[in-house]
Amino acid sequence: MTVISKTAAGSAEGSTEIERDRRRPTINDIARLAAVSKKTVSRVINESPFVKEETRARVNAVIDELGYVPDPQARGLAFRRSFLIGMIYDNPNPQYVVNMQQGILDALKGSGYELIIRPVVRSDPNFLSDMRAFVERQKLFGVVLPPSVSEDERLAALLNEIDCPYVRIASVPLDEAESMVVTHDHMGGAAAAKHLLAHGHKVIAHISGPLTFRSAHERRRGFCEALAAAGVGMPDAYVMEGAYTFESGMACGEALLALSPRPTAIFTGNDEMASGVLQAARKAGLRVPEDLSVVGFDDFQIASRLWPPLTTVHAPTTDVGRIAADRLIRGEDDGRARRYDPDSILPYLVVRESSGPAPA
Amino acid sequence: MTVISKTAAGSAEGSTEIERDRRRPTINDIARLAAVSKKTVSRVINESPFVKEETRARVNAVIDELGYVPDPQARGLAFRRSFLIGMIYDNPNPQYVVNMQQGILDALKGSGYELIIRPVVRSDPNFLSDMRAFVERQKLFGVVLPPSVSEDERLAALLNEIDCPYVRIASVPLDEAESMVVTHDHMGGAAAAKHLLAHGHKVIAHISGPLTFRSAHERRRGFCEALAAAGVGMPDAYVMEGAYTFESGMACGEALLALSPRPTAIFTGNDEMASGVLQAARKAGLRVPEDLSVVGFDDFQIASRLWPPLTTVHAPTTDVGRIAADRLIRGEDDGRARRYDPDSILPYLVVRESSGPAPA
DNA sequence: ATGCTCAAGGTAACCGGTGTCATAAATCGC
DNA sequence: GCGATTTATGACACCGGTTACCTTGAGCAT
Question: Over chain B, what is the mean pLDDT?
């Protein structure tokens, strides 16, 4: 594997025998040892069909022996495109970010592509020009856009303009499906609703995320529609809009628990707000789940650290990230990109101890 | 800023007037328009002192007008080194990871360097060879090594061997200080001890992280030494070794709360284990902080989501990341690298509601 | 005036790959 | 059996920068 010294032995032009020993082998080394031109080596690397089987085998043998790996910079320079995938995001939740990164990295593993991360502030006046500079400079191979960056049409337009492939992750299709991974958050909302209905709850409340976010909107829609389908209504006062934050969850929770009749169950748009509701319940002297059931969304680690452990809808963030990145690097390989099985990334309910039968 | 069309106007060799319009300007474009050789442009870019002030100004004017930015790939190819910083880590805590990333990115902002992240499994048999392949392939400019990757001497040796700069982050100096950022975790442990002592606690317990981690060892040492200095002893049974996980915190917490006399305060090596202790206390029917004070370490978001909100030692992870990356890209600029002020990254106690006076 | 030094800048090769096009060898049609 | 394709390969320029080395001219000592 580390027999690189062979290169030195092989070349004898004007350089002392010993020098240039431990240097990574280049395409020239391979070409010389395989007795072909560098162009042919390049063909082998890029799997061109116009190489005789015998030649290919010989070149590959040398490549393997020297442990040659093409230099991504040189390749990128000639290709006019790097082998870097960008992840541009503004989701403030650390666990979301890490899960998504992990999924992308899983897909990239062994592919030769690397991940560059880029947290952004979408409201920054320089956002778009910064993105343009970033993507153009790095000549990104493609970018993954999780929500809510994925919902920024200006950014999508910019990427189209500078011809940078991207995959958007969102609750609903935002454009032709090829460049999207859809998370179907409304089904998660529905799952939460069914769970609460099954436990006999009638007075139910919901705290959504900011409705400017598709995810917030979809989770709420799924929840409300499932309730309505079961003939359970939710008066306006029982549906609040939070900010996806702990603090907003606590504030909305306090407001909801002051209503009469008091809701016996609250579904929140994410786990952060659910933890806020748990605090509010505690301050109001309510027991969970005896007096109040709480259901969150995300199923992040915190869900099991809370008291009581949180019933929540699992969002398969890592899988989604993996699929998105996979799309990007497979490209339009075989006809259309391999379609993913939507079932594999549908949200589903995880029942813990924060939910139970409606109080009598 | 987007006056790139000028390049087309400037060149009139064998190409139709309109073509090659919206292409990023290259060093050749700058050279032509500034009427100098590309080498001189290169000198200006790299701030060579051997350029006449007048020439420099002229070149810079053209650069600004065209919004020229050198291509990192081409530059890297010639430099034999990329402008990519690697972060190699195995810390499983999402918040730690994100905070560290944020710090590094802050330092890199506007510098032209980009961050590549690399979660690893240090026990993987291919760990070292993977790292070697990764670093060599990408020709990384440098890497940041947070704990516990930073404590892997094999990795440090490998990086030395392949001549890749690195900065290690750890609780104690592991080598000559230039390539280290020291977090002085023992001072955090001491701060926790002083807090509990001030509240009159006498029967105190500690759950450390795995002692193979320096951080766990140092936090424990700081804590124990401060207690000892105050004449408060901790019998062996009151000092347990956890795994930095929620589950281990819960298990150790149950064990400690079964001791007689029961500890009135527990200090844990991180917030995760503290959340486990809170669960254990709840199961044991104890009130926090009335019956039991709990102090954690890290001050991650979860600390304020728990009930009661957790008193904990703040670890300035983001700042540490920033300083580490700063070191890397400043290099040995002016004589020795700019020294950081250790005070700026010392851990400190954040008092919330999980700690209080010892029960009478 | 001559020679030397040094600032200022240019030339050409090179970093490690790929694109384009030409060419040699192999296959095919009839 | 010979031109026309097709297959397989090489030569060479190029991607966008940098390094190594050379040239020029001004300033200064001799």
Answer: 90
Pick the CATH number of A78-184+318-333 from 3.40.30.10, 3.40.50.2300, 3.20.20.10, 3.40.50.720: 3.40.50.2300
What are the pLDDT digits (tens) for A198-244?
999 999 999 999 999 999 999 999 999 999 999 999 999 999 999 99
CA of A75 to C1' of C28 (A): 38
Q: What is the CATH number of domain B185-316?
A: 3.40.50.2300
Contact map slice: A 50-109 vs B, CB within 8 A:
69, 71-74, 76-77, 82, 84, 94-95, 97-99, 101-102, 105
User: Taking the C1' atom of D19, which residue's CA lies nearest?
Assistant: B78
Query: What is the CATH superfamily name and number for domain A5-70?
Result: lambda repressor-like DNA-binding domains (1.10.260.40)
Q: A343 or A277: which carries more pLDDT confidence?
A: A277
pLDDT average, residue stretch B206-233: 96
Q: Over 70: is that where the pLDDT of B288 sits? A: yes
Pair of tokens at residue B344: 């700026």
Residue of chain B whose Cα is closest to the Cα of A95: B94
Residue type, position A98, single letter: V
- Cβ neighbours of residue B87 closer than 8 Å, sequence gap 6 or more: B100, B101, B104, B115, B116, B117, B118, B143, B144, B146
Parallel, antiparallel, or unpaired: how do β-strands A311-314 and A348-350 relate? antiparallel
Q: How far apart are CA B238 and CA B223, in angstroms?
A: 13
Query: Which pLDDT belongs to residue A231?
Result: 94
Domain positions in chain A are: 5-70, 78-184+318-333, 185-315
pLDDT for A5: 35
